[in-house]
Design brief:
With 257 residues, this protein is of the alpha+beta class. It has one domain. It is built from four helices and nine strands, in the order αββαβαβαβββββ. The chain is elongated, with a radius of gyration of 22 Å.
Length: 257
């Protein structure tokens, strides 16, 4: 018995149907993958928020410092005992091990040895440690507490100084201070909108970045975590690339008020 072969037209129809299905399904798969990374980012922030609450309880209700210069520890080292991530962020020379797949790296960040992306989750140290804010965090080099954006080793403030814990950022996914297409290295310190506006972009400091259709996981001082559009709490970039705070006052969701 002879079997009838597919005609060229039939094959082309089948190929066209497969192409149409692929065009429909591939974006769905990509969205599902991004949603999974977003969920992981939110989970990472919840771990950090919980770690901060536990740390405060052990240290007289005070927030963690950004860096301990004597021990060469970063915030990652100091919160390490409170995080289920025992093999990461334990570099004896300070900082975190690189590349790091732990809670301090966004699941959606393109971290490679050449990327200059290190921490892509950063800490609101300018308000939650004892940094003088009177100059808008522009450095005054005669007093270490007034070194502004470079005052990385100040002790933590008391949690009672935060008037609205549910609306004050403690951690946020972050990126380059010169924008997503920039080149500045990232680190654990988060520039607030006003500090970024007055000091400009700087390497080794970060700003909030949304990697999930501009949505950004954010942990708040009271311990809850949300995903918010960056423009709803921090900033936007103009068409010419200028940094533009999106709130009035600019540090509305970062300061102690």
């Amino acid at each position: 018995m002879k079997h009838k072969a597919f005609t060229l037209i039939e094959l082309l129809v089948v190929i066209a149907i497969i192409a149409i299905l692929a065009a429909i399904l591939f974006p769905v798969f990509a969205q599902a993958k991004l949603a999974a990374k977003k969920a992981m980012g939110i989970s990472n922030h919840k771990q950090l928020a919980t770690a901060s609450v536990l740390y405060n309880g052990d240290y007289d209700d005070r927030f963690v410092m950004l860096e301990n210069s004597a021990a060469r520890f970063t915030i990652a080292n100091m919160l390490q005992p409170y995080i289920k991530n025992p093999t990461k962020n334990v570099n004896a020379l300070g900082g975190n091990l690189f590349p790091d797949d732990g809670v301090w790296v966004s699941p959606a960040a393109n971290v490679t040895p050449a990327s200059n992306l290190y921490f892509t989750v950063s800490y609101n140290y300018l308000y939650l440690t004892n940094v003088d804010s009177s100059t808008g965090f522009v450095p005054v080099w005669t007093d270490p507490s007034r070194w502004g954006i470079w005052a990385w080793t100040q002790g933590g403030r008391s949690a009672t100084e935060v008037n609205d814990p549910a609306n004050t950022v403690i951690f946020s996914e972050s990126g380059r201070s010169d924008g997503p297409s920039g080149a500045n290295a990232t680190w654990s310190g988060l520039l607030t909108p006003n500090a970024r506006l007055l000091n400009g972009p700087n390497a080794w400091l970060s700003i909030p970045q949304g990697r999930y259709a501009r949505s950004c996981p954010v942990a708040w001082v009271d311990g809850h975590v949300t995903a918010k559009d960056v423009s709803s709490f921090s900033h936007t970039f103009s068409p010419t690339g200028a940094f533009v705070p999106s709130q009035t006052p600019p540090d509305r969701f970062f300061d102690l008020e």
